[in-house]
Amino acid sequence: MSCNPSFGGIGKGHLMREVDALDGLCSRICDQSGVHYKVLNRRKGPAVWGLRAQIDRKLYKQNMQKEILNTPLLTVQEGAVEDLILAEPEPEHTGKYRVSGVVLVNGSTVYAESVVLTTGTFLRGMIVIGLEMHPAGRLGDQPSIGLAQTLEKLGFVVGRLKTGTPPRIAKESINFSILNKQTPDNPSIPFSFINETVWIKPEDQLPCYLTHTNPQVDEIVLENLHLNCHIKETTKGPRYCPSIESKVLRFPNRLHQVWLEPEGMDSDLIYPQGLSVTLPAELQEKMITCIRGLEKAKMIQPGYGVQYDYLDPRQITPSLETHLVQRLFFAGQINGTTGYEEAAAQGVIAGINASLRVRHKPPFVISRTEGYIGVLIDDLTTLGTNEPYRMFTSRAEFRLSLRPDNADSRLTFRGYKEAGCVSQQRYERATWMKSSLEEGISVLKSIEFPSSKWKNLIPEASISIGKSLPLRALDVLKYEEVDIELLSKAVPEPLRKYTKCRELAERLKIEATYESVLFHQQQEIKEVQRDEALQLPKDLDYLTLRDVSLSHEVREKLHFSRPQTIGAASRIPGVTPAAIINLLRFVKTTQQRQAAMDRLPKTDQHLCNTDKLEDRQL
Amino acid sequence: MWRGLWTLVARAARGPRSPRPCTRQGSGAPAPGSGATVFALSSGQGRCGIAVIRTSGPASGQALRSLTAPRDLPPARKACLRLLSDPRSGEPLDRALVLWFPGPQSFTGEDCAEFHVHGGPAVVSGVLQALGSVPGLRPAEAGEFTRRAFAHGKLSLTEVEGLADLIHAETEAQRRQALRQLDGELSHLCRGWAETLTKALAHVEAYIDFGEDDNLEEGILDRADSEVRELEVALGAHLRDARRGQRLRSGAHVVVAGPPNAGKSSLVNLLSRKPVSIVSPEPGTTRDVLETPVDLAGFPALLSDTAGLREGVGPVEQEGVRRAQKRLEQADLILAVLDASDLASPSSCNFLDTAVIPAGAGSPNGRSQRLLLVLNKSDLLPAGGPDPSADLPPYLLLSCLTGEGLDGLLEALRKELAALCGDPSTGPPLLTRARHQHHLQGCLDALGHYKQAKDLALAAEALRVARGHLTRITGGGGTEEILDIIFQDFCVGK
């Protein structure tokens, strides 16, 4: 954790639940390392709840290392990667090269069947404080220059992004007594599906505090813009406002929130979230002391900006393998994303696919109809990005279906069967939950009474008795003030058993809330999935492809993004409906030819192969 | 349009072995999830003896039954004469031949119905609107019938070769059509609504994605609520306004106006082929507004004869002039009539200055008002035509007495009315209009769900659906648009 001492948030919490559903580590480690657990958006509907926690940096590192080092069959070697070892490509796959290992900075080599690059902000990383710039991936760490050059030489399109981090403040120098205190949730909601609770009791957790900027802060920022080259640089920062400078410049004369977050249980540092800044260090300190509660604050480490290379993510497939180099996978900030959660989401997918690729298994791809991970990767690989891509719930068109509560039903079974990345224990838990939910819903549907009877049974509910049709228990459960507990008091048999498991009771309530809308959304999802089932041949050369009438512009776009399905192709801006139909006809003809060949007797196999060769030459 | 359009295309690719989403011998309400039922005018456009309107999809049987109620479905593939009426109002529309083709033995492979109606624009428009009101039916997208036929294996691959071109051409035509139609008041309205809605949605989305840990201003949800309420009122008013949407059905308002004794009533009688107005050589004969529905060059029109415009001599005639002026303001098309032999008279000059010239210059309130200047009594003119000294806008010469110039006038009327009502020979305007109405209604319904939703994610979903409907008329509608507004309006992020 090299920046903020927290995990999750709105949209990001969804990603963490999905990573966990695939047995990724960060959620489980966060359940062992948090110091302040709080679900955001509690009042806005369970589809947009944002699980979030302040995490103890030291504990997280310890727990994560313990987990990794105790993973059977895993060898861990530390060292900066300087170059890739390349070999001839496999003829049955696209790509100009194949990676077969890496060269470390000390000259030693590590051979590998697949390689995942997760370079963070290190590719030609440059740290900026005031007018000073110096090469570094992170304060105190060398950047990665050789690797960046290798990637550029191979022909990857490289772009540049920037991000930043706030100064760190000594805890004992802050006057918390005059600030607003935020206490954690009670009870804490764990990130992981396999944990019923987190490692620490709510009363033992640490609070956060809220303070605000003021006109003096604006003044310091505005008067010293000439000392701030990070802000002037043309490198694209995000449209949202990560730094105090961009907040002041774009929304002047306002008070901006600053959250004072603990860095850990026994850490004496405070992370002032919202105060990311690249002013010269002495001005940062001056600015901090203008803020309420921070009048006597001691700055331990200044904030700084980081500029770094990323590779246009349209150069990777939805399995995160590069088009250019076989068995080379990219994950995280190298693909233009922000944050731990986006990185974790890509990490789990890249890891799964790096391993499947070695075992000659088909890639594991999550559709945008199945998860935020799918939305993230589809957006990146079809649209690219020119600002650090951050997950928002508004990016997911099927938001009501892709909820934090049901990530296990969406992904765990696929992870278990297709990727083999899910533990038996998790699989069994998810299976039990799924069948209990299905049974619960059908029981709730089967209980039907006239609305007047329901009104008598549950006077708390605002059921209107004007309706003549009988109401199902599932319909009653939709009312805001009704939960399984209340319902089971009215109809103890057979509902009482569903109150036993808190998670099950809560999930039944959520399913009831969205039931009517989900029916329609399922139809739409099916349509999109049908489109995604139509694969485009991976080795299509769009630039020279004859037999398909496509404009030059469309060819270029398809050539660069290399969509794998008709669905992905249709989401590329500028690819017209007519072009899609033409592609479709092409796919259909190819399929028919393929089917005809498959019907040939097996002894003629070699003939089929020559046919295929000719096909490709086309 | 994009996604729906090509989802169908994708379905097409699954080929004939895919499960067929159609029910046999329509069982009433469409089975949910078995695909929408679409309708369109399938015969050639323009005024013709018979127009064919087709539906395809599981609700076809339901549609046929609701328009021919109380009769039941006709036997399959047999032409039957039925009285068509609007299922909402019961208002009779036409006597027509109807055919019922239960799938899979139909053009598209789905349940299909055909209505062979009398080819006037009013009838066609009426039947299309009636179909649009049947649950489960929506206007077809470009090339949709062909694509459905392909999907059900009714067309071979070679027959589909031309499909891309066809869709390209049709979407082009639809786009042009939409542009044409959107090039006026409706365009303005729709874009405005879509903007308001996108903004309201962006604010709700901002509240969801950034509401907790960033300082959004207070009350952004209340603002979204009030925007949605205003939008609801505006949409409701628009949909209730029969005049705008149904000009073609009820007819364009054509008002005959001019100074006294120019021959306005003679023209009305000539055009309606019946003595509607009393004609006399005495100025001021017509005192009230006389209305008569007529068929003008193939278009239905409501023709109004008005009192001659002059400083009235008596209170009755003065009231007549006032009513004439009011009617003029509401007219879709003005037929300005002058006495060709009397252009220099004060009443002629006054009429030219106050009514004809301003209309030609475009009215100040921005309403398009079309005007045709007719110089009547051409039989009284000398061989050289009207007085060249009079500075006249373009005009048509006519003699109501001899009928000379009538053909020219009818041709000019046809052009004007085509522009007003949508020219059936240049595209599918009726369909476009039905589409608009369909999506505006869909938008309004979704806004209703927004208001009822307690859960904010559900409320946002309703707004997303509403916006989806509007953007199918105006285009656009991506997520990026929303994020742009969020980042522009709010200081959010960390």
From TrEMBL, chain A:
Residue ranges of every copy of the tRNA uridine 5-carboxymethylaminomethyl modification enzyme C-terminal subdomain domain listed in the record: 512-585
Pfam families named among the record's database cross-references: GIDA, GIDA_C_1st, SAM_GIDA_C
One GO term (biological process): mitochondrial tRNA wobble uridine modification
Cofactor(s) the protein requires to work: FAD
Reactions the enzyme catalyzes: 5,10-methylenetetrahydrofolate + uridine(34) in tRNA + taurine + GTP + A + H2O = 5-taurinomethyluridine(34) in tRNA + 7,8-dihydrofolate + GDP + AH2 + phosphate + H(+)
GO cellular component: cytosol; mitochondrion
Transmembrane segment boundaries: none
GO molecular function: flavin adenine dinucleotide binding
Alphabetized PROSITE patterns for the sequence: GIDA_1 (PS01280), GIDA_2 (PS01281)
Subunit structure of this chain's protein: Homodimer; forms a dimer in the presence of potassium. Interacts with GTPBP3; forms the GTPBP3-MTO1 complex composed of homodimers of GTPBP3 and MTO1.
Function summary: Component of the GTPBP3-MTO1 complex that catalyzes the 5-taurinomethyluridine (taum(5)U) modification at the 34th wobble position (U34) of mitochondrial tRNAs (mt-tRNAs), which plays a role in mt-tRNA decoding and mitochondrial translation. Taum(5)U formation on mammalian mt-tRNA requires the presence of both GTPBP3-mediated GTPase activity and MTO1 catalytic activity.
Family classification: Belongs to the MnmG family.
The protein's name in its UniProt record: 5-taurinomethyluridine-[tRNA] synthase subunit MTO1, mitochondrial
Natural source organism: Delphinapterus leucas (Beluga whale)
From TrEMBL, chain B:
Catalytic activity: GTP + H2O = GDP + phosphate + H(+)
Highest taxon of source: Eukaryota
Cross-referenced SUPFAM superfamilies: P-loop containing nucleoside triphosphate hydrolases (SSF52540), TrmE connector domain (SSF116878)
Region named Disordered: 15-35
InterPro entries: G_TrmE, GTP-bd, GTP-bd_TrmE_N, GTPase_MnmE, MnmE_dom2, MnmE_helical, P-loop_NTPase, Small_GTP-bd
Keyword Signal: no
Keywords: GTP-binding, Hydrolase, Mitochondrion, Nucleotide-binding, Transit peptide, tRNA processing
Location of this chain's protein in the cell: Mitochondrion
Cofactors named for this entry: K(+)
Compositionally biased intervals (Low complexity): 26-35
Any GO MF annotation of the entry: tRNA 5-taurinomethyluridine synthase activity
Pfam families from the UniProt entry: MMR_HSR1 (PF01926), MnmE_helical (PF12631), TrmE_N (PF10396)
A cellular component term, taken from the record's GO annotations: mitochondrion
Main location: mitochondrion
TrmE-type G domain location: 251-418
Presence of keyword tRNA processing: yes
GO biological process: mitochondrial tRNA wobble uridine modification; tRNA methylation
Protein function: GTPase component of the GTPBP3-MTO1 complex that catalyzes the 5-taurinomethyluridine (taum(5)U) modification at the 34th wobble position (U34) of mitochondrial tRNAs (mt-tRNAs), which plays a role in mt-tRNA decoding and mitochondrial translation. Taum(5)U formation on mammalian mt-tRNA requires the presence of both GTPBP3-mediated GTPase activity and MTO1 catalytic activity.
Subunit structure: Homodimer; forms a dimer in the presence of potassium. Interacts with MTO1; forms the GTPBP3-MTO1 complex composed of homodimers of GTPBP3 and MTO1.
Family: Belongs to the TRAFAC class TrmE-Era-EngA-EngB-Septin-like GTPase superfamily. TrmE GTPase family.
Name by which UniProt lists this protein: 5-taurinomethyluridine-[tRNA] synthase subunit GTPB3, mitochondrial
Organism of this sequence: Delphinapterus leucas (Beluga whale)
